[in-house]
Amino acid sequence: MTKKKKLLINALPFLALAVLLIIFCGIVNAKGYRLDMYLKIVFNEGIVLSIVATGAIFIYTLGSFDISLGAATLFSATVGVMAYNATQSMAVMIAVIMLAGVGCSLLNSVLASVFHIPVFVTTVAMMSVLSAIAAQIITTNGGAVGGISIPSEVVKGLDHMGFKIAVLVIWVLICVFLFDFTKFGRRQKFVGGNPVCATLSGIKYNTYAILGFAVAGVGVGIGAFMTLVYTPSVTTTTAGDIGMNIMVAIVFGGMPISGGARSKIYAAVVGGFSYIILNNILDLLINSTSGYGITQIISAVFFMAVVYVASMNYRSQMLPR
After folding, report:
1. Mean pLDDT within 248-256
2. How far apart are CA 253 and CA 77, in angstroms?
3. Between the chain's N and C termini, which has fewer beta carbons within 10 Å?
C-alpha cells in the first residue's frame, strides 16, 4: 500500500466527522430548528462519550474490552450525588466519583487478570450488578422517573463550553503523554500487538491490564462528573448506552478493535463525536419512536462499512496483531 493511500485512510475519520457535522447542520437548518440548541446537545453528549472512550483506549489497546463502562459511569454519578447530599461538599463528591470509577474498573481487571475469568463474563456481570445497585439507590431515594439530583447552583458555574473543552483537552493530553511518550504506553501497545512475545520478553500482561483498567476508571470518573455538570440529576437511564457506544466510537475513529500498535488516542475523540452526530442525524430524519429499529440498523450498517474501510490499511500486512 502506498504512503499516500495510508495517509488518506488515516484521514478518513476526520473527513467523516467534518462531513457528518455539515450534514447535521444542514438538516437542523432545513427543519427550522435552533442550530445552537442542537449543537449544544451534540457537544455535551460527545464530551462525556469522548472522555470515557479516551480512558477505554488503554483497555482496547490490549485487545480486551469493557462493556460495563456505562454502568460504572451511572454508578459513579449516583454515589457522587449521594455523597454531596450527605456532606454538601463538592470536593467530597468529586473524590467519591473518582474512587468509584477507578474501583469499578479495577474490580473488573482483578477478576479478569488475577482469577482468569473471561473479560466478557466479568464485564457483563459487572454491568448488571452496577446497574442494579445504582437503580436501587435511585428508586429508593428519588424515584425511577425523577431520579436523584444535586442543586443546580453547585455546578452552574461549570456548565459552559470553555470548562468542558478544557477538561477534555487536559485529559486527552495526559492520555497522549502516557500512551505515546512513556514506557507504560509502549508496553501497552506491545502487549496488545503480540501478547506471547511480550510475555517472553518479561512483560507481565496482568500488570499492564490492571494499569490499563485503572486509567479507564479515571476516565469513567471524569465522565460521570461531566454528566452531572451537564445535568445535575441521575436517573436509571443515565449513561446507559456508553458501554457499547465506546466500542463503536473507537472504530469510527479509525482504530482497529484488536488493539496493538495501531491504537490511537485521538480515535476516541474523533469517533465519539462522529457517533453522537450520526445518532442525532438519524433521530432527526427518523421518528424516534416508530423508527428506533431502523435507526439501529442504519448505525450497524455504517459501523460495518467503517470497519471494512479501516481494515484496508492493514489487511495485506503481516502480523496485524
Report:
1. 85
2. 27
3. N
CA atoms within 13 A on the CB side of 57: 34
Q: 55 with 220: CB under 8 angstroms?
A: yes
Phi, then psi, of 262 in degrees rounded to 5: -85, 5
Q: pTM (2 decimals)?
A: 0.89
| CA 108 – CA 111 distance, rounded (Å) | 5
Residues 6+ apart with CB under 8 A from 108: 66, 68, 119, 122, 123, 126, 213
**Alpha-carbon distance 301 to 320, whole Å?**
24
Is the Cα dihedral 132, 134, 138, 144 positive or negative?
negative
- Of 194, 195, 175, the closest CA to residue 185 belongs to 175
- Residues near 127 by beta carbon (within 8 Å), at least 6 away in sequence: 67, 68, 70, 71, 243
Q: What pLDDT shows up at residue 142? A: 74
Could you please report the per-residue DSSP string of 129-175?
HHHHHHHHHHHHHT-TTT-EE--HHHHHTT-SHHHHHHHHHHHHHHH
Three cell numbers at 46? Answer: 460527545
Q: What is the pLDDT of residues 85-132, one digit of tens each?
A: 999 999 999 999 999 999 999 988 888 777 777 777 888 888 899 999
> Alpha-carbon distance 244 to 232, whole Å?
24
Maximal CA-CA distance, the chain:
61
Amino acid type, 168: L
Placement of cell 477507578 in the chain = 102
Please answer whether residues 108 and 66 qualify as being in contact, where contact means their C-beta atoms are separated by less than 8 angstroms.
yes
Report which DSSP code applies to 2. -
Enumerate the β-bridge partners of residue 148.
Answer: 234
270/50 Cα distance (integer angstroms): 8
**Rounded distance between C-alpha atoms, residue 278 and residue 285, angstroms:** 11
186: pLDDT strictly greater than 60: yes
C-alpha cell at 139: 428508586
Question: Residue 149 pLDDT > 70, yes or no?
Answer: yes
Q: Is 301 helix (H, G, I), strand (E, B) or coil?
A: helix
Whether 174 and 166 have beta carbons less than 8 Å apart is answered as no
State phi, psi for 250 to the nearest 5 degrees.
-65, -40
